[in-house]
Design goal:
- This protein is α/β, with parallel strands linked by helices and 235 residues long.
- It has two domains: 2-75 and 146-234, Rossmann fold, CATH 3.40.50; 84-145, no CATH class.
- The protein is built from nine helices and ten strands.
- A hairpin with a 2-residue loop joins strand 1 and strand 2.
- The radius of gyration is 18 Å and the shape is globular.
């Protein structure tokens, strides 16, 4: 079943084209890694999928719904790279706030235990370390049922054990039919999670292929080497 469809997205800022006709789709139970060098358009693409930026042309649909309104956003679990948390709230208060905004009950107890957040749930966000904030970020993304999860550099600031726990959680949710769109600069990490790769360069999709397919096409043994060779060919 198709979960997400991105069709011919074009977006410019101050006369500069950032997205130049980006298209791809994402199925239930599939993990898609959107990769590319800096300024390739990944952030703008994510904002368009989230419904936070309107494209100049093209469209985004999630479960057949256009990218607008509260009902659409409830279909997404989002883990931003740098979450803009209110510093004076606690994780417990944040969870309640997001629950009210989404009009959904959270499934948080297991996640709190998974990420060892019990001692921190009633502490102010401003007192938490970067790694603990990132665990709270994961908690808020996964506490609400959704067909699509968007994870932007999800393991930033996480220690190796917490990173491993997050990856296991992603794989578990994927097995249950959830779709994932992930961006990351840690290509070896993506290689072990992703089913498919969309590679953006200067706002264009230059590759939409399975991980194994990318390696076969380039004759490389790792995804990182394969993507580097593609960039060198275009340099």
């Amino acid at each position: 079943m198709e979960v997400l469809r991105v069709e011919n997205l074009k977006k410019s800022f101050a006369g500069k084209e950032v997205l130049k006709g980006v298209s791809f789709s994402l199925k239930a139970g599939e993990l898609l890694a959107v990769l590319g060098p800096n300024a390739s358009g990944k952030t703008t693409l994510i904002k368009c999928v989230l419904g936070l930026v309107l494209p100049d042309e093209g469209r985004v649909t999630l479960m057949g719904k256009p990218a607008e309104g509260k009902a659409y956003r409830k279909l997404i679990g989002y883990m931003p790279q740098t979450p803009p948390f209110p510093e004076n709230l606690t994780p417990e208060e944040l969870l309640l706030l997001v629950s009210r905004l989404r009009e959904q009950e959270p499934n948080a107890e297991e996640l709190v235990r998974l990420f060892k957040l019990e001692p921190f749930m009633r502490q102010k966000i401003k007192t938490l370390s970067g790694g603990t904030r990132q665990k709270v970020n994961a908690l808020l993304a996964f506490a609400f049922d959704a067909p699509l999860f968007i994870l932007d550099e999800p393991t930033v600031s996480l220690d190796p054990l917490s990173s491993a726990r997050l990856k296991r959680l992603v794989l578990k949710e994927k097995e249950e039919g959830k779709a994932f769109l992930i961006t990351s600069h840690v290509v070896p990490e993506v290689e072990h999670l992703a089913d498919r790769v969309v590679f953006l360069v200067e706002g264009k999709v230059v590759l939409d292929e399975t991980v194994e397919g990318v390696k076969r096409k380039t004759g490389k043994t790792s995804l990182e080497e394969a993507l580097l060779s593609l960039l060198e060919e275009r340099a």
